[in-house]
Amino acid sequence: MAHHIDGSRNSCALHGALQVIGAIEGAIPVLHSTAGCGAQHFLGVNRLDAGGETFGAPPVSSSNISEKHVVFGGGSRLREQLKNTIKVVEGELYVMVTGCSTEMVGDDIPAMAKEGREQDFPVIYANTPGFRGDVHQGYQLAIKALIEQLPALGKAVEAPSKGVVNIWGIVPHQDPFWSGNLEELGRLLKGIGLEPNLLFGYGQGVPSWQKLPDAHLNIVVSVWGDGTAKLLEERYGTPLLAVEGLPVGAAAARLLRAVSDRLALDQQRTELFIQSEEKRLHTSLGALADTYYRAGFQREFALIGESAQVVGVSEFLTGTLGLVPRTLVITDNPPEYAREALSTLLKGLVHGDRTELYFSEDHAEITDLVFLGAAELVLGSALEKSVALELGVPFLQISFPVADRVVLNRCYAGYRGAATLLEDLGSEILAHSYR
Q: Is residue 134 assigned to a domain?
């Protein structure tokens, strides 16, 4: 029997689409729904993603339909809103996104987008009502719309880029460290001679999306990038490479070697780069050694977050730091086909006889699981702070939602991300030991 979910951290598909569009420079969302949808996006993203949004609020234009539009249709209201938005908000691309109410009454959004293009407006659409799924489905729906409709707007004639690789599976804002994680993965790929196409974040605008057909490889770091990579494989013949979650620390070497093998890159250059990065990380680990033993780092921990994050961070904490996983909770509600694979993968990575793995997005259930596991360290979202206090153990916020820390361009991916995680974790454990 179905039951209600208490305090889910996964918003609806509409908000996932808005997060995608808002992370592309020059892309302007035009929301066709009620005023509440825009307000909830503001409250859910701007206030709970650790300061990762632009000043004031997400730049979302909305048709703000009312009861009369639900009764008689809101197409005319959307037409008006699109024209007004283009007049006052400068952008390279305008993306109509829909909420539940306009989808249920059957407003013809494709026709509105077509009408806009006939007036030389760079406009596409994405059907993203909340009942289509959660924020992760919204991520996929918005990307699918961009892939399928952007070519119709034309592309500037330029020579194809060389060595382009796309990165998929990091959902903007749902991962509080999304911007820094993408930049770090891009830095690593550039270090072995490639041109990473990050697609989201600083410097990533419509031209980045127009380079999709030029890519030699689509790299997938979470289950949420699978559908996109397969679509591009069907559309452009671009092969995909799926890696085992977010690569943190030494796991980055597996990614770089796998990419290097797949694209037949210079193996010597790849190994020299890996050696340089590992030497830097080992220096950080050496600097931490005294604190590690003095503060008692080797503890049983609980980790709550999205699947890619749980895989990557738990492998680093166990394989490199020697911590012991007690309770692992995956919150992004991955599809059934992925759950067995994730379970097998985590069991192989953490080697913990006492490790318990759960799939849940219910705040009350997660709280009970963490409390019963009685871990000595908790890593999770702001929602887990109370149970960490109840257990009397150190607590580090690493997953969405984040309430009382600021994340501007930090990362936990790659080698630099591993060093950042060491700093953050060490600071929390030390601070707790002095209380």
A: yes
- What does the block give as tokens for 423? 């700093």
Residue among 403, 393, 394, 400 at smallest CA distance from 425:
394
Which whole number is the average pLDDT over 238-259?
Answer: 96
The reply to whether the predicted model has a pTM over 0.90 is yes
CB 325 within 8 A of CB 300: yes
Instruction: State pLDDT tens for residues 201-224.
Output: 999 999 999 999 999 999 999 999
Find the domain containing 252 and state its range: 164-266
Residues 6+ apart with CB under 8 A from 411: 177, 180, 181, 183, 184, 417, 420
Q: Which residue has the tokens 């995909």?
A: 240
Contact 79, 113 (CB under 8 A): no
- What is the identity of the amino acid at 244? E
* Rg from Cα positions in the chain: 22
**Contact (Cβ atoms closer than 8 angstroms) between residue 20 and residue 147:** no
Is 382 found in the same domain as 281? Answer: yes
Which residues have CB under 8 Å from 88's CB, separation 6+? none
Count the Cβ atoms, other than its own, within 10 Å of residue 40: 17
Q: What is the CATH number of the domain that holds 192?
A: 3.40.50.1980
82 in Cβ contact with 109 (< 8 Å): no
Q: Give the span between the Cα atoms of 29 and 146, in whole angstroms.
A: 12
82 within some domain: yes
252 and 327, same domain (yes or no): no
- DSSP class of 154: -
Number of structural domains (the chain) is: 3
Q: How far is CA 424 from CA 288, 301, 379, 398, in A?
A: 12, 15, 11, 10
